[in-house]
């Protein structure tokens, strides 16, 4: 009886340490999808397939006039010292002029881990079926899917997803 109890206790302890596999939303692959982001110079196109592994990735679909996007971006910039090991890719379907104003407003060009550009092919709408913004697709350092975050969120919530 003691042996059975001890065996069940050990199995229970081991199973508590293992994380259950993440459920992928319908249509979302485990690996970070490859798509092109038109950079602010309007000539260079960056392919997400070129993002190296080793740091978490946040694809942040935003609207320049969205107050929730602005609030989150402001918080990211304010707390960048806590997020310096996260790669942020801010992507919008807005006009380049509006994206440029957003970039200038938050001085995003001074952060090496932040890339901003235009989703020329409306990738987020088609692949992620993004209902609007803010919309974030979070990937771990292996470029594997972690979670989708829709709507207003803070840095603490994002950090919790990155740690999981």
From TrEMBL:
Recorded superkingdom: Bacteria
Domain spans labelled Thioredoxin: 26-164
InterPro entries, per the entry: Thioredoxin-like_fold, Thioredoxin-like_sf, Thioredoxin_domain
Protein name: Thioredoxin fold domain-containing protein
Organism name: Chitinophaga agri
